[in-house]
Structure formats: C-alpha cells, structure tokens
UniProtKB/TrEMBL annotation:
Keywords: Hydrolase, Nuclease, Signal
The keyword Glycoprotein is assigned to this record: no
Biased composition (Low complexity): 28-50
Signal peptide start-end: 1-27
Protein name as annotated: Ribonuclease domain-containing protein
The organism's taxonomic lineage, starting at the top: Bacteria, Bacillati, Actinomycetota, Actinomycetes, Kitasatosporales
Length: 146
C-alpha cells in the first residue's frame, strides 16, 4: 500500500486549515477589548453603531486622531491641503449618502513622511468614522455627544 495518497490528503487538509485561520484573523476583525485601570477588560460601547459598522470610542483613538477631531470641531486650520476635501466612498463601506456629504481629514502617522493611511471621515449630519488602513475598513466613532 502506498503512502502517497495519505500524504496528499494530509497536505490538502493542512492547506485548508491554514487558509481558514488566515482569513478569519484578517485585519478587519474587532480590536481586543481595552484594559481598565484595574486590569479588567472593558467592553465596547456597542458592537455596532447606528451605521451598522463596528464602533470605537473617541477616547480610545490614537492621540493624533483625537487632535484631528479637535481641529474638525474648531474648523481648522488643517495641516494638510487635502483636509476637508470631499470623500466619495468609492469602497461603498459607509452609509450611502449623496456626493459631497462626507469630508475626509488626515490623521498624522508618526514616522510617515507622507499623509499615511489614517483618516477621519465626517458626515454632514455629525457622524464620524475612523480608518487606519486607507479606507479598507471603517469604525464609527462614538463621542460623548452620541
């Protein structure tokens, strides 16, 4: 009896298992729960926001993102020429709105010489979205006003 078919089957099973593991742990999954001062994990405010997207509390964003939120609230001045430009949502991830509804703002990435991948996208209705992977995924930002 030849062992070759058994080895082929084993190799195929391993490939399927590895492919399943890598696709289920992609960068789009939820972030690990934050730890509180006592060491306990804090659950997210809500698994999804009003948009149906995952959420992140404004207080849990990187400091550079919080600074950008402050600039947006003040109306600028913005450090990048493209800040405040219309965001068209070609990826069709955000809730569908007419062109011009969303505006994008750069969030500085330490160590990057260009604009980097991090952005805040703000809707005319006051909704705010965060992406740290150049529009591949978004999370709805939950602020104290929400």
């Amino acid at each position: 009896m030849s062992l070759r078919p058994s080895r082929m089957l084993l190799a195929l099973v391993l490939c399927v298992l590895l492919a399943g593991c890598s696709s289920s742990s992609g960068g789009a999954g939820p972030a690990a729960p934050a730890r509180t001062a006592t060491g306990a994990t804090a659950e997210a405010v809500a698994p999804t926001g009003t948009s149906g997207l995952p959420t992140v509390r404004a207080a849990d964003l990187p400091p550079e993102a919080r600074k950008t939120l402050d600039l947006i609230a003040r109306g600028g001045p913005y450090p990048y020429a493209k800040d405040g430009a219309v965001f068209s949502d070609f990826e069709r991830i955000l809730p569908r709105e007419p062109r011009g509804y969303y505006r994008e703002y750069t969030v500085r990435t330490p160590g990057e010489r260009d604009r980097g991948a991090r952005r805040i996208v703000a809707g005319r209705g006051g909704e705010i979205y965060w992406t740290d992977d150049h529009y591949e995924t978004f999370r709805e930002v939950i602020t104290d006003e929400n």
